[in-house]
Amino acid sequence: MRYFLELAYDGTNYHGWQTQPNARTVQEVLDKCLSTILRQPVETVGSGRTDTGVHAAQQYSHFDLNQELSINNFCHRLNRLLPPDISALNIYPVGPEAHARFNAVSRTYEYRIVQAKDPFQQRFTHYLSQPVNLDLMNEAAALLLEFEDFTSFSKVKGDTLHYRCQMHVAYWQPQATGLLFTIKSNRFLRGMVRLVVGTLLDVGKGKILPQDFKRILAAQDRRQASGAAPAAGLFLTQVQYPDNYFQEQQEIFTQNKTSAGL
Questions:
Q1: What is the rounded distance in angstroms from the CA atom of residue 178 to the CA atom of residue 187?
Q2: What is the mean pLDDT of the chain?
Q3: What is the pLDDT of residue 258?
Q4: What's residue 157's pLDDT?
Q5: For residue 139, what are the contacts with CB-CB under 8 A and spacing of at least 6?
Q6: What is the spatial distance between Cα 136 and Cα 148, in angstroms, rounded to a whole number?
């Protein structure tokens, strides 16, 4: 039986989502807690990999069990075991072929900036003391929608097979205390959003022009981009699946259970 788990977490104290040797990660902690509460080894598969220090207001993962899980109060029970900076929001029974990563159609990230120093926001925002030109930053951000290859904003090659992304949205908007950048795509490369933000901020500071940003995009060369913006301001805010996805998966789950005589 397969289940989707919807999560939120403060990534400050974690080396990203994905389990890795000699580092504390969200996935590692989640898998240990699930294994404890379910009394069997559990390995989750995430909808995407957030980097070190990056937060998630919505993240999904899936895991498999040999038997049906009673989902009533399951998130409540799991939250009692999870640390305070990770929260289980919802759990959904799904079909055996459902996949948290491959079935997602888009991811949305937000980057949050404050322009007045606030010690109570330091974990969740980037403090920017100097003024920036929002119009120029939006002019440059709009260019992202004209490209598909984002090699220039990929942190490392690693196991990435290609650097193509279908960009849907990219814009800045003013907030009461600062700025908010929203970016939505079918997929993102490792470190991509922070590199995009760092380079767009250089446009806003007057270090480079929007046409320079376009040249960087076209160059397909990581060395052309600016440094990455700090992780604290970055949130994965939405992972989107096809319309009626969870309703349809619930029906598949029920059909499979009936076929199995459970």
A1: 27
A2: 95
A3: 77
A4: 58
A5: 203, 210
A6: 21
Continuous segment of H or E residues that includes residue 194: helix 192-204
User: Which CATH architecture describes the domain 109-237?
Assistant: 2-Layer Sandwich (3.30)
> Quick one: pLDDT at residue 215?
97
Among the listed residues 10, 51, 64, 159, the single catalytic one is: 51
Q: Per-residue DSSP letters for 61-84? A: EEEE-SS----TTHHHHHHHHS-T
Q: Count how many Cα atoms sit within 13 Å of the Cα of residue 95 in the half-sphere of its side chain.
A: 13
State yes or no: pLDDT of 158 exceeds 60. no
Q: Using one digit for the tens of pLDDT, what is the confidence trace for 206-226?
A: 999 999 999 999 999 999 999
How far, CA to CA in Å, does 247 sit from each of 67, 72, 92, 243, 256?
Answer: 21, 17, 9, 9, 14
Instruction: Write phi, then psi, for 159 (nearest 5 degrees).
Output: -100, 15
pLDDT 10s digits, 172-207: 999 999 999 999 999 999 999 999 999 999 999 999
Q: How many residues in total does the chain contain?
A: 262
- Cα 205 from Cα 126, distance rounded (Å): 15
Q: Where are the domains of the chain?
A: 2-102+241-259, 109-237
Residue 80 buriedness (CB in 10 A; 0-12 / 13-18 / 19+): exposed
Query: Does the annotation mark 51 as catalytic?
Result: yes
- Is the confidence at residue 68, as pLDDT, over 70? yes
The CATH code that applies to domain 2-102+241-259 is 3.30.70.580
Paired residues of 113 in beta bridges: 126, 179
